[in-house]
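Tokens for Elongation factor P. Go.
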Amino acid sequence: MASTNDLKNGMVLKLDNDQLWSVVEFQHVKPGKGPAFVRTKLKNVLSGKTVDKTFNAGVKVETATVDRRDMQFSYMDGDYFVFMDMQTYDQLHVARAAVGDAANFLIEGFTATVATHEGEVLYVELPAAVELVIAETEPGVQGDRSTGGTKPAKLETGYTVQVPLFITTGEKIKVDTRSGDYLSRVNS
């Protein structure tokens, strides 16, 4: 349990029938008249839905312990992604639903943050950008600007991104894991 006065960004609260909510932002408000209160923006850990919630100052809220560990993606085992804890070498099987969109950018050896609560995997979080190799793309035709100077390219993970015309098969590029957009070419 924690007081609303102790709230911090990133803290995970257990509210509304044991649902987990992460504090995105909070603000202590002391109006000139009436009691103080805390205005928060909360994000549901599982669904990603964001809500605004107001608490009276000093009210006790239940906190949840979320264990966030950096783990290395090892391999696929059917529909499960197998991650290995680099400190203990324990392996963790994570369902595709918990991995979510991160699956589009995972290759063997990548390090990701795996968040668990009471032994249940909540989500897998990748760094903001990853470097991946272009597995296949058509050669760009100079002068073809009808598509804004981009073309589709298939990454080594099988995910397709839009890249500039000058990118060729076999090149390494940097991709934004949140939006799936091309960021830059990686010079080797």
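The longest helix spans residues 96-99.
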